[in-house]
Amino acid sequence: MTNEAKIAEIFDSIQGEGPYIGYRQLFIRFCGCNLLCDYCDTEFYKGKIYSIDSLLEEIKSFDISSMHSVSLTGGEPLLHYQFLTEFLPELKKLNLKIYLETNGTLPKALEQVIDFVDIISMDFKLDSSAKIGDVYAAHDEFLNIASANNKDSFAKLVFDDNVKDFEMNECLSLAKKYNIALILQPRMDKNTINVSHEKILQTFNYFSQNHHNTRLIGQVHKFFDIR
User: Fold this and answer.
1) HSE-up of 84 (CA within 13 Å, CB side)?
2) What own/partner pairs with CB < 8 Å and gap ≥ 24 does 98-102 have?
């Protein structure tokens, strides 16, 4: 185990994606990722090394009484699962919910921290938009762990005009298998939606007709011009 992690930034903002849109959260952005999605606009390689104690002190400097939860984001926070196994039990003592934002490709790491996580926001990764290969099997194993532990889980699907039918079918299959909310998120480049109106409606109609727990939600924080 390690008691240090590289953190890109810690900030107070609103959740801008998924069913928890608008809630105030404290974001802890971890450095590094195991994927290289071509639409990623997050700078998460430069950061500061924190010990468990120093990170807890930084968190306590915020008005955490007003927070809905702490978002572990990135990058990919589960790359730091060894740190998290020691850090999260201490964070839970502050009576904050733990909200994990993850690419859903590291199921073995999830197993190590699942007891301390309250909400799981998982991204379905598509090769057509992310250029990272087929990760269906990893997503399946990941969601199986979340489901077996009765976690409040949902999946986001970032898509563009290149989304393939078989990719949509795979995502639909997993959403139905685990009975999770599916959030369709048109790809944005900076503050501009980079998906045709026709494709947005076509994609939404396909999923909503086959999985009623489907919602079309953009990245609200970008429309508000806040991070």
Assistant:
1) 25
2) 98/69, 98/70, 98/72, 99/15, 99/20, 99/25, 99/69, 99/70, 99/71, 99/72, 100/71, 100/72, 101/71, 101/72, 101/73, 101/74, 101/77, 102/76, 102/77, 102/78, 102/142
Per residue in 36-93, pLDDT (tens digit) is 766 666 666 789 999 999 999 999 999 999 999 999 998 899 999 999 999 999 999 9
Residue predicted with more confidence, 43 or 214: 214
97 beta partners: 69
In the Cβ-directed half-sphere of 65, how many Cα atoms lie within 13 Å?
Answer: 0
**pLDDT at res. 96:** 93
What percent of the chain shows pLDDT beyond 90?
Answer: 74
pLDDT confidence of residue 92 = 96
Please check the confidence at residue 118 and state whether its pLDDT lies above 60: yes
- Best CATH choice for the domain 4-157+165-178 from the list 3.20.20.70, 3.50.50.60, 3.40.50.720, 3.30.428.10: 3.20.20.70
| Region for residue 32 given its phi and psi (left: phi exceeds 0; alpha: psi -120 to 50; beta: otherwise) | left
Counting every residue written for the chain, the total comes to: 227
